[in-house]
Fold these 3 entries.
Entry 1:
Amino acid sequence: MLSLSLILCVCRSVKRFGMEVKMNITYNQENRVFKLDTPNSSYLMGIVDKEGFLGHIYYGKRLEEDGVAYLMRTQEAPFVPEVNDRERGSFMDSFPMEYPTHGTGDYRQDCLSVRTKDGYNAVQLTYVSHQIYDGKKKLEGLPATFGEETECKTLEIRMEDPILSLEAVLSYSVFADTDAIAGSVRIINHSQEPVWLTKALSGALNLDEGAYDVITLHGGWARERHIVRRPLEAGMAAVYSRRGESGHQEQPFMALCEKTATQETGAVYGMHFVYSGNHLEAAEKNQFFRVRAVMGIYPEDFSWKLLPEESFQTPEMIRVFSCEGLDGMTRAFHTLYRNHLMRGKWLHRKRPILINNWEATYFDFDEQKLLDIAKQASALGIEMLVMDDGWFGNRSSDNMALGDWQVNEQKLKGGLKKLVDEVNALGMQFGIWFEPEMISPDSDLYRAHPDWAIQIPGRRAGLIRNQYVLDISRPEVADYIYECVAKVLRSANIAYVKWDMNRPLSDLGSAALDADRQGELSHRYTLAVYRMQERLITEFPDLLLENCSSGGARFDPGMLYYSPQIWCSDDTDAIERLAIQEGTALLYPLSCMGAHVSDCPNHTVGRTAPFETRGYVALAGTFGYELDVTRIPEADRNSIPGQVRLYHKYNDLVREGEYYRLASYSENRLYDCWEVVSSDKTEALVTYIQVLNVPNRKSRRICLKGLDPQKRYLVEVESPDGEGDAKTAGCFPQGSVLLGSTLMNAGILMESISGDYVGKLIHLTQVQ
Ligand code: DGJ
């Protein structure tokens, strides 16, 4: 029997401001079950037996009651140790531990390993107490989701290993507006001796027997975040980064979905890591056919010394459950990130249309060249000039000068302020590039401080792009670099910073760390990046910060906490971008995807796609230009005002609307299609890209999504030049009004377009 009064006192399904609070956390003392509810999902954990193991019970569609602790199977052999201590080891290796630990008989993937000064490694956690409160605490020094007391609720479960005098606080926060649970763990050493954490992952996801697929986002330089889906077989499926950055190669993300799950249907469990350094995502199907996935800081090379009463905070892991396929997972992540992770004045604002000189000039520019670009650009409606790499020290190629953050006045005659003022006088804002975390061997900084580079004494550190990584875990190094950056920003009216990072970490060694702390370097480095960026946005709250890492090697939720936009990829080819942007948008709102129109033949793949198509693809992100506007073909230049018009007309919708994937070129190899619907469902924009034309198909049927079935919508093909010329044909029912239900079920017809790499925008507006 449930103790009703007890449940009522912790259950806060109250009405606030007339609205039902859709999230809840309860603890039922009778059956010792925690129940976490999001609007459409429930997550249940239970405390079992006298020893107080915390087991995972259920994660899935929302349940209306908590009496399902039988799912932990403690009544099945080998039984809990209290009943059958003879088979304790068998129990440990089969029980769905909520936060599995190392060394006491659970041989599956675990989350926590602790080495004592005597060299032992075992740890076992049992329940001590818990608290449930409104709101969510900050994670000290780490990016993390946030919410007001009315927006989210948090459960903290205190666990302990009495032998080690080690405490672990497992935190779970649920949100009223999205089916996401944010979790992290704080580990505290209450013993008299130091201990070393050799693995401190952020959490596990235990699932029952089932046929699952694993979805990850895989890539490389200029090929980031391609969606990969494969079956979860017996054994392990894992992705990771040990590069000291989240990396081009694997997004810190993994989803497990029912084999039958589609874009719109079926159960999907998504896990995303709010962190920008080394990471591990591993899913394992065990001998009993059950599944456990773990996520956290990559454990190899990691260790963290905890002195008495010190604590270690793991980064946050987001769990999302969707019973509406990948679309549902995407919406849950987008809502979480837009409402509870991204910050700052620019978050909900239209960003200035920028022109960046990287692909226009590379290192070969001076102030006159930049002003020529700015003059043309401003006349065409572009709103900001961004000066990329090459403006400082003697940086004439990527071989030198990183660390020498003084303006090169031979290149920029008259200095930076003069240039910025002149650009401002053209009615444009000014932005600038930095790569603060790096040092070139050929730099004044390196000559003065060779030990500031991350390296192992006596071993020649490996160069990548002819540069080393600065040891910003040392406060004096981080302070020096921060001051260099800030001094430049204080010296002129600079509205935007592109913070780049162009190589992974290697040869890990810090001159400032003791031998038993060298394993802390990579995490300390990531914490230092966060500290520097927090300092930057605190000192310059109006600054628009864009993170970047050789394209998109650090496109992760951690960086999103500091910058509302991140450069997606160095591949600016419109067709290559389809897969990159599809994978990125699987998790991230379009408002944060750095996307620009560049010149053709494309500098990465040599492809020539129509200027118009390049515009349509870039309009799905932050939008800007990456070309020499003074040298592109006149027809392209003349198209810019039309694209600028489209940006101003649709950016509010693209930035703030709900994103839906309608077709994937990565899957069908012929065409791509996505849609954004305004939150009040009065307007939608469909982007259709026909990559390859094929014979014998006059039109293709596309069913829309997310509209109000009862509303009537006018369907119009958007004209690229705003004048409704012949190019506006190509979609049925162009110019007609149909119900949302018709458009979603019967769909629209997109006529085949002559040629390849061509596209159309379809605009829907509610007419009643
Ligand atoms: C890599 C970035 O992704 C590019 O956009 C450009 O800023 C270069 N670095 C500059 O070195």
Entry 2:
Amino acid sequence: MKANITIMPGDGVGPEITREAVKVLQAIETSFGHDFTLEEVLFGGIAIDESGSPYPEETQRSCKNSDAVLLGSVGGPKWSDPNMKVRPEKEGLLEMRAHLGVYANIRPIKTYPQLIENSPIKNRYLDNIDMVFVRELTGGIYFGKKEKTESSASDICEYSKTEIERITRVAANIAQDRRKKITSVDKANVMATSQLWRSTTTELIAEEYTDLELEHIFIDAAAMHLLSRPADFDVILTDNLFGDILTDEAAILTGSIGMLPSACLGENSFGVFEPIHGSAPDIANQGIANPCGAILSAAMLLQYSLNLKEEAQVIEQSVSGVIEDGILTKDLTESSYVSTEEVGTAVMEKILQT
Ligand code: NAD
């Protein structure tokens, strides 16, 4: 298969981990006889330094012309002054997601038996965790009208029925390939947007996805149950704000933020794929960042944007194999650890041996 993939390494550890994910994509290309054209472009703080914009026109063009985008991470202390005219996160990440119309954030959360000791949660709660968050990404309180005076401030939270329906369909389609259960998170006892969220999801699932089970849960209860019974969840559907909070909470179940991938999807198969972590400036340029989140994001890219499910599975199995072999970066082990590059090479070799 031929595909155009835009690569945006970004800032901090972004370039180090993205390099390993690219190595893995190239191993898949070789093993399965595909033809991927990879175009590397500027994005984030580095793009501000070089062009004045975190999402320059050339980068926008490359993204629009590609089948999928692989992103490292953006931001860092150099660009964190809130008074800066443009910032990597707001004018970079948020604008890019809106510009490319990717409104659904997909985050699988899975534990690896070998890494369970790294989790701050008691081991008995961590067996068989395998859930996927589907978070609405381009609406809600982050995108509503904002006002601030000396003495008061407000953020408007707004959702249309159409926005809720389209994200519910994404969750439903994912649930159909899994354990057929959706947990929808809201605060319908106090928020009007949550009431619309609850009635819309209920109606849509009842009409279009009769084989799925839908449960509703308040955000405060969800925060608790995520820690007390995490293995019960399959697909968790949330709005933008609640999803932002819960996905970070769920990430700590797995022991390291460095292991987790994500996808941002829109109407068609196009998507932006990135590890869930940030630019980790505290460990950048030391060769110790965990590249697995980036590598698994490349697997999601193959699965969701290119429909290469077998290839995606080969990457996932290779990452699991490398972890079983004890080839681990510093965040995953207290004893002897290996470099970012060594983990990437080990995954690549497993793929080439498959
Ligand atoms: P972070 O995710 O960068 O780091 C949090 C902690 O996790 C740090 O201790 C870091 O060392 C560790 N960590 C992160 N990735 C790791 C990896 N691959 N391997 C091992 N350890 C890893 O979050 P932060 O420190 O709050 O944010 C740093 C910068 O990243 C900020 O500028 C923030 O705005 C930005 N950010 C960007 C994105 C994105 O690009 N999508 C997401 C979140 C934060």
Entry 3:
Amino acid sequence: MFLDKDDEGILAGEQGQTRQQMLELLVALGKVFGAERLVPIRSAQVSGASYKTIGEYGLQWLNSLDAKAVVPAVLNPIGMPRERWQEMGVNEDFAQKQRAVVAAYERLGISLECTCTPYYLRETHFGDHLAWSESSAVSYANSVIGARTNREGGPGALAAALVGKTPCYGLHLEQNRKPQVIVRVQADTRNWSIADYGALGYYAGKLVGNRIPFFSGINPDKDQLKGLGAAMAATGAVALYHVEGVTPEAVKTPFDLTGLDTVVVESAEIRKLFKEIPVEAVAVGCPHCSPAELEEIARLLKGKLVTMPFYVFAAQGVIDKNQRTVDSIEKSGARVFADTCMVVSPVMEQYESIMVNSGKALAYVPDMCAAVARIGTIEECIRVGTE
Ligand code: F3S
């Protein structure tokens, strides 16, 4: 694997033991995956931020490190809102441990934005090389923006943040970004919502596994693409997909689709996922809400009061820039929380059934929160949450 003079210096310990170890980790990863070189990255997004997922051992490891990030880097959602954790019902013991994890990352120079939608906070461009780790963020970066990132593990993304480079293999290379299976959607998708696209992703992820799908027959907007990709990354292992005439690489590149398998998805298969079961709480914002989604929720909740716990999740930076919209949502009794989500917060474990508008949450809530999950459109979520 080619290493430049700076890399050789880091490996010789010239920039401290932590950076040396981090580069050793990246080189080892690169060798496993056949990378010929490292590539400089524009940003990193580091998972393993919730105390619920990394635990005491992970915290100790973080505390043993001593270096600062050299590229902009954010965290994945943590187990609680940094400011409003008491209001969300997080207990003091968990909060103390979560604060220790956050402090450890802050010491390493990672920005304390805790979100799976870092693309709303910092512009990310077509062709940028990144080291992001949360699966929906990876899918959005690759597919909707046309940036290039593998799905990094937490340590790999942290190492990339501290070194500023990542091994150049997998989705960093043009030749590995071509479609591998065609998904033909046979449905009238003109009035489809984010939830419909989430349900499509939930269903399609199981069919395509880890292949790169090329969709035809759909025309999603960016929020709908976000929901589609998040769900496919949850039920499959899809880190990149293309949509005919919509996603940037599908528009720029005339892909040769000859000889690829085709799977057909019909609307009846998607509708079957929308089951009307009673729920104890509603949680939306998986992935974290865009400004447009917050506006839509505020509009639909106007003049209504929620009758069950109603959670909305978004990045702190998005909340700050849309405070009036957030205030309007909260007038209904719903709560808009930053930094966390319905899957990584232990608070959600108190419910036996949760309604969501996300295919990814539909896949994860049963395992991560031990609750039954129901998917519905945002209109249905608000009707159920206010009736
Ligand atoms: Fe984001 Fe949590 Fe969903 S990390 S994609 S809101 S499960």
